[in-house]
């Protein structure tokens, strides 16, 4: 069992009319933990954890173990969804070709609707995101400024900066590492066909490549199987690719609009966690410090043996930093 028995499965079907004209399309699966003390006998504190690519909610299995050891589960409600379109969640692509339904704005709105459904409209929460989930979280903190008590981002920089850094200045070293941002965003049926022919190979290879030397082959096999095998479902594969297509199109439009209107920075306390290997590619502090108007803390977790999946590979350090930060912002 990857998660404690206190985590129950929930499914939320979203029925709001979609902007792109698609039929109501999202059904979100999540794990939800509630402290044993009844909600009426304690102040409700909610923590939302969003996974990245190519994972699903099980990306946080090690994080939850450490949160439990730290006593967080005794006082916090915790929600860990499969992002719409990933894992057991579903999301129908935009019918107008805009990719809006898989934009970070739409997915962020879906996740807020999940919180509203589970806890009631207006519930505030602390938000943690890794990789694609971090991009959703960043968008959410800009679009729902009155809802987010604190934002923790792991292993990510803003989308526009990713594309800007893919150039020949370093003989395309970074472009080669980030090739999937381009490949997965290709027009419909290109990546579906190429990856679909051997999805187990493609995603197993990606997971191994992005894992640090110390942890290769040592993740829980149940978690790894759930990451790889979800892509045998064509709908999950297409949704994931739509995520990247949105990233190369409408997400950029939304981010550029924020910049034009002075709304690129977040107002809530911001914690940024990254690996040493990430720091060799990106100046996380230089990038994120200007994008927070409240307190901003940028920390490296783990050593040179840690890869991209810090929530699994460096869970002890991640939770140590997270708990210290959460205690500070909730005082």
Structural commentary:
This is Alpha/beta-hydrolase. This protein has an eight-stranded mixed β-sheet, sandwiched between helices. The radius of gyration is 19 Å and the shape is globular. The protein has helices spanning 61-69, 104-119, 132-143, 159-165, 173-177, 180-183, 190-196, 199-210, 221-229, 234-247, 250-260, 276-279, 284-288, 310-313, 315-329; strands spanning 7-13, 27-33, 46-50, 77-81, 125-130, 148-154, 270-274, 296-300. The protein has a single domain (7-329), classed as Rossmann fold, CATH 3.40.50.1820. Helix 1 (61-69) links the parallel strand 3 and strand 4. It is an alpha/beta fold and 331 residues long.
SSE blueprint and pairings:
Blueprint: E1 7-13, E2 27-33, E3 46-50, H1 61-69, E4 77-81, H2 104-119, E5 125-130, H3 132-143, E6 148-154, H4 159-165, H5 173-177, H6 180-183, H7 190-196, H8 199-210, H9 221-229, H10 234-247, H11 250-260, E7 270-274, H12 276-279, H13 284-288, E8 296-300, H14 310-313, H15 315-329
Parallel strand pairs: 3-4, 3-5, 5-6, 6-7, 7-8
Antiparallel strand pairs: 1-2, 2-4
Helix pairs in contact: 1-15, 2-3, 8-9
- Helical segment tally? 15
Distance between the amino and carboxyl termini: 34 Å
Work out the strand percent: 5-15%
One letter per element, helices H and strands E, the order comes to: EEEHEHEHEHHHHHHHHEHHEHH
Evaluate the radius of gyration: 19 Å
Poorly predicted segments = none
CATH superfamily grouping: Alpha/Beta hydrolase fold, catalytic domain
Q: What's the CATH C level?
A: Alpha Beta
- Please indicate the count of domains: 1
Counting helices, strands and paired strands, the structural category is alpha/beta
| CATH structural architecture | 3-Layer(aba) Sandwich
The name CATH uses for the topology is Rossmann fold
**Strand arrangement, major sheet:** 1-2-4-3-5-6-7-8
Helix content: 40-55%
Q: Based on DSSP secondary structure assignment, what is the total number of beta strands?
A: 8
Determine the oligomeric state from the structure. Answer: single chain
**What does the main sheet amount to?**
8 strands, mixed
User: Could you tell me the mean pLDDT?
Assistant: 95
């Amino acid at each position: 069992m990857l998660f404690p028995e206190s985590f129950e499965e929930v499914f939320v079907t979203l029925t709001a009319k979609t902007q792109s004209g698609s039929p109501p399309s999202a059904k979100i699966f999540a794990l939800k933990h509630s402290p044993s003390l009844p909600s009426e006998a304690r102040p409700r504190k909610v923590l939302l954890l969003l996974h990245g690519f190519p994972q699903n909610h099980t990306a946080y299995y090690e994080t939850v173990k450490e949160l439990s050891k730290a006593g967080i589960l005794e006082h916090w409600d915790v929600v860990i969804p499969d992002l719409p379109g990933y894992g057991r969640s579903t999301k129908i692509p935009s019918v107008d070709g805009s990719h809006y339904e898989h934009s970070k704005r739409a997915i962020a709105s879906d996740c807020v609707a999940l919180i509203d459904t589970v806890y009631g409209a207006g519930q505030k929460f602390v938000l943690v995101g890794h990789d694609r989930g971090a991009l959703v979280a960043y968008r959410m903190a800009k679009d729902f400024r009155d809802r987010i008590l604190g934002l923790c981002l792991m292993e990510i920089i803003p989308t526009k900066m990713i594309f800007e850094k893919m150039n020949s200045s370093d003989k395309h070293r970074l472009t080669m590492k980030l090739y999937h941002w381009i490949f997965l965003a290709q027009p419909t049926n290109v990546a579906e066909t190429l990856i679909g022919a051997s999805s187990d190979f493609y995603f197993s290879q990606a997971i191994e490549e992005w894992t640090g030397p110390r942890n290769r082959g040592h993740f829980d096999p149940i978690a790894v199987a759930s990451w790889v095998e979800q892509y045998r479902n064509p709908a999950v594969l297409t949704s994931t690719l739509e995520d990247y297509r949105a990233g190369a199109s409408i997400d950029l439009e939304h981010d550029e609009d924020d910049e034009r209107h002075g709304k690129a920075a977040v107002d809530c306390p911001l914690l940024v966690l990254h690996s040493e290997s990430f720091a060799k590619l990106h100046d996380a502090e230089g990038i994120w410090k200007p994008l927070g108007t409240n307190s901003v803390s940028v920390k490296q977790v783990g050593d040179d043996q840690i890869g991209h999946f810090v929530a699994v590979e460096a869970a002890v350090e991640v939770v140590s930093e997270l708990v210290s930060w959460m205690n500070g912002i909730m005082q």
